[in-house]
Amino acid sequence: MSRMIFVNLPVTDLDASMDFYKAIGFENNPQFTDDTAACMVLSEAINVMLLTHAKWRTFTDRPIPPATSSEVMLALSCESREAVDAMNEAAAKNGGTADINPVQELGFMYNRNLADPDGHVWEAMWMDPTAIPTGD
């Protein structure tokens, strides 16, 4: 079996968070979803578990950081620059915030950062590995 990642995120409004993640391309896995948590699937290997604060606290007693803090930035590859732009537009229209950091255009790589409704930071990025400068 290949390895998978389950990113666990505390959320204040489970339904709104599920709507947000659906809007940016995730699908709900009802097998692991109830009124305290939702499993949102991006690919066979990438899953996001949205956990109510009460559910989160069953796993840890560490404090939930405020939405204005930044602890981690999760990068998601996209098929094109246009797909990066579309993800940011969907974020802005569905309770998130687009372009929380400056857009990066490096020629071989393009990325834009967004935040979900709880302030969790995502980087939508596209890269052409054949165009990476070699330093010669």
TrEMBL record:
Q: Which InterPro entries match?
A: Glyas_Bleomycin-R_OHBP_Dase, Glyoxy/Ble-like_N, VOC_core
What region holds the VOC domain?
3-127
**SUPFAM superfamilies membership:** Glyoxalase/Bleomycin resistance protein/Dihydroxybiphenyl dioxygenase
Q: What Pfam family is a match for this entry?
A: Ble-like_N
Q: What is this protein called?
A: VOC domain-containing protein
The lineage is: Bacteria, Pseudomonadati, Pseudomonadota, Gammaproteobacteria, Oceanospirillales
